[in-house]
Amino acid sequence: MQLSKFTDYTFRALVYLARHTDKLCTVEELATYLDVSEHHMKKVIHQLAKTDYVLSIKGRSGGLKLGVSPCEINLGKVLRMTEETGNMAECFSRGEICKHVQGGCKLKGIIQRSLNKFIEEFDQYTLEDVL
């Protein structure tokens, strides 16, 4: 499985914020340091700011910081929040493209169980574990 850029940027932004708890960070700072577009980073921060993971402080002296301790940020939960994990193969959402799906395709079950194991592995770790 390949993680989306959005998930990659989310993980990297969280690591950066966890390593810079002594100050408020900006979207521009994150984008520059992580070498990603500011537009993409704004989307990432918008999603994270909807959770307790990141606090977004408005105003002239505002910025971003972690909202909870790194030990409280479960990587599996972050992965579920950022990835559309329900449709790993095209046939998951469009059964009409494959004649075998109607006949009880066993490959779909294997793919789904593998994906579940992949996510369960992320469930074993927190942000603190990767710092």
UniProtKB/TrEMBL annotation:
Q: Which Pfam families match?
A: Rrf2
GO CC annotations?
A: cytosol
UniProtKB keywords: DNA-binding
Q: Does the keyword Protein transport apply?
A: no
The secretion signal range is none
- Name the needed cofactors: [2Fe-2S] cluster
Q: Which residues form a coiled coil?
A: none
In Gene Ontology terms, what is one molecular function of this protein? Answer: DNA binding
Any idea what this protein is called?
Answer: HTH-type transcriptional regulator NsrR
Q: Which PROSITE patterns match?
A: HTH_RRF2_2
Source domain of life: Bacteria
> Does the keyword DNA-binding belong to this entry?
yes
